[in-house]
Amino acid sequence: MNNIRNFAILAHIDHGKSTLADRLLEITGTIEKRKMREQVLDDMELERERGITIKMTPVRMLWKTEHSDGTINYSPLTFNEESQNLKVNSQKLSSEQSYVLNLIDTPGHIDFSYEVSRSLKAVEGALLLVDATQGVQAQTISTLQMARDARLVIIPAVNKIDSPLARIPETKKEVASLLGCSEGEILEVSGKTGAGVPELLHAVIDRVPPPTSSEPVPSSSSVPFRALIFDFQYSNHTGVIVYVRVFQGSVSREESVTLLAGKQQFKPIEVGVFTPEATCAESLSAGEIGYIVTGIKEPGVARIGDTITSVMRPLPALPGFEQPKPVVWASIYPESQDDFTELRQAIDRLRLSDSSFTYEEESVELTSNREGRAHDLALGDHDRRLARGVLASALRAARRDGEHRKRAPAALTVHGHVR
User: Fold this and answer.
1) What are the residue boundaries of the structural domains of the chain, listed by start?
2) Which regions of 98-219 does DSSP assign to beta strands (E)?
3) What is the DSSP letter of 315?
4) Which helix (H) or strand (E) holds 289?
5) What is the dotted CATH code of the domain comprising 4-207?
């Protein structure tokens, strides 16, 4: 595990996280230049349309340092060169020169703070990115506090230094004051041009500690498996695919595992890593970040923050799991009551890939008020959905209409009541 570095990028909305992630993938050779496109990790159409990160995206990069005459030169490790090592533990890489860098690109909006907090439990370091043209903003402070609560190593960086509007000295002073560090510790980068990105990679390797494990013996095969779910998605063919950070032992298709909060046992259909495409591997071991295909097709079973452990040798749940607390009520009506069943099915499908909202079907209560009665009769049956913010609610409505091809769009009414 000494060659693994797990880290996340934290920033306020529009401070250049996705663009910087593009350069990291390009410079490490994870994606060839001819295959690059903007916001390559934002693969949802809605993310690209709005220019924001909605769903967390992990990716595994390989990076090699070459020592020569007291200096450090950088060169990417392509997956063709190391193809055999994708199926074995990272310890087979050179302990001196080659590193596995696991990056998690996180959402920047406060509505997704719980998801971000769980992803921070999966890493040892966080890159705090601040736009040199904007300076420190609200979400910079809130995400920094989450990183501090998780006791992560924080690497500050000022982005967009190539912009003619950049206020580099002023921004570095703001960041230094916020973190209580010297300005010399703050990196200067440009996600657009790639300036400073190799130095940033070196800082990740140098400052972020490798994963630690509580395993009592060297052989991971003799240690029970335990991992944290920090995100998941749903496939019509294979069911729920959970994104995990392995803390102890290893997992493969040979051993049955269980979701502790979800109370569901399953035998993995597939395990693997993100390169950034899903790449099948023989196993995932302690310190690694990857995915497990569960085969589960029931809504509400997979939950962010849940613990997966061995059925035969179960371990206690990892700390920090919470049921998401909705703060927004959204009442959704189909344009025609004939479409109500289709609306409910679309929400059911969305629920399979997003456990952070709940919904219930409501019966209309007629009142003695003449205007109210007419309003109720016109709207008819509907679903009331509970989300954790106005943006989250609106985005999920858009995902329902776009991803599930909802023919008749719902009338979305957002109630800003805190539960």
Assistant:
1) 4-207, 221-310, 328-415
2) 98-105, 125-131, 153-159, 187-188
3) -
4) strand 289-293
5) 3.40.50.300
Count the helices and strands in the chain (H runs, E runs).
Answer: 9, 21
Q: Which CATH architecture has domain 221-310?
A: Beta Barrel (2.40)
Superfamily, domain 328-415: Elongation Factor G (Translational Gtpase), domain 3 (3.30.70.870)
DSSP per-residue letters across 393-407: HHHHHHHHHHHTT-S
CB 152 within 8 A of CB 126: yes
Whole-angstrom Cα distance, residue 40 to residue 22?
A: 6
Q: Please give the DSSP secondary-structure letter assigned to residue 107.
A: P
H-type helices in 150-241, by residue range?
A: 168-179, 197-207
Question: By mean pLDDT, which of 18-22, 76-80, 123-127 is the weakest?
Answer: 76-80
Distance, in Å, from the CA atom of 360 to the CA atom of 382, rounded to the nearest integer, reads 9
Contact 371, 317 (CB under 8 A): no
- What whole-number distance in Å separates Cα of residue 68 and Cα of residue 71? 5
Q: Which residues lie below 8 Å from residue 25, measured CB to CB, with a gap of 6+?
A: 31, 36, 40, 41, 59, 61, 276
The answer to which of 15-29, 72-86, 124-138, 369-383 has the lowest mean pLDDT is 72-86
Residue type, 49: E
Give pTM, 2 decimals.
0.76
Residue 337 scores a pLDDT above 80? no
For residue 201, the SS3 value is helix
- Give every CB contact of residue 206 below 8 A, 6+ residues apart in sequence: none
- Residue in the block written with tokens 């703060």: 327
Integer CA distances (angstroms), 134 to 141, 171, 335, in order: 14, 8, 42
**pLDDT tens-digit readout, 184-199:** 999 999 999 999 999 9
Residues 6+ apart with CB under 8 A from 177: none
